[in-house]
């Protein structure tokens, strides 16, 4: 991450409006595109043009798909707990990636969280969680230990997008921290995988949340999610590793 990007991330935390945040995110991404182009140019000049062009192209594509995924994730203004004031949005948790947003994991499912009158739909685009007898707080309804249906909110890689990241291996959950290798690895996949495995297939609604699906769509979304992992891997690898390591890996792969 560039120092200027880090400073812009801090400004985003202080920004009052979505428009201000959008302008700051645009600056962050402009810096990232410039960084990748310069790295590619240096690689070409230093004597590894084929590797530099390959990695640079994949990096630029990964950056663009992450930008698209972030834009989609930011459409929804969130669910606010009436009692505690806790807010969850698809961009509400941090990552160590250059834009500072955790995009790994499953997006918000408003239908599941707000079913049976648990929420009020506000005019400003937000929902207020008023709760129910069984799930009085927003934290309760998204807790798989209390609500079995909530387990669907947590993917194998990343968990639930608005909350701390985790690996989910059947019943075993392994949380990870911002800045950890798991955080960097999952975020390197997140944008490309999100776009190729979900967004282009219509698995998100107009607000960027998990769309309501019929049985066929549920099965199909499971397939696209799995297939998108190997498809996303070259983009993630190019974005995650150094040029020297990428060159070694491409040579190994070419043998």
Description:
By secondary structure, the protein is of the alpha+beta class. It is globular and about 65 Å long. It is 51% helix and 7% strand. The two termini are 33 Å apart. It has one domain. Helix 1 runs antiparallel to helix 2, helix 3 crosses helix 6 and helix 3 crosses helix 7.
Layout: helices, strands, pairs:
Elements: H1 3-14, H2 18-45, H3 49-73, E1 79-81, E2 87-88, H4 110-114, E3 119-121, E4 127-129, H5 138-141, E5 166-169, E6 172-175, H6 181-197, H7 215-240, H8 243-254
Parallel strand pairs: 1-4
Antiparallel strand pairs: 1-2, 3-4, 5-6
Helix pairs in contact: 1-2, 2-3, 3-6, 3-7, 6-7
Query: Which strands sit side by side, in order, in the main sheet?
Result: 2-1-4-3
Task: Report Rg.
Answer: 19 Å
Uncertain residue segments: none
Average residue-wise pLDDT: 94
Tags for this model:
6 strands, four-stranded mixed β-sheet, 8 helices, two-stranded antiparallel sheet, 255 residues, single chain, alpha+beta
Quick overview of this protein structure:
This protein has 255 residues and is α+β, with helices and mostly antiparallel strands. The chain has 8 helices and 6 strands. It has one domain (3-254).
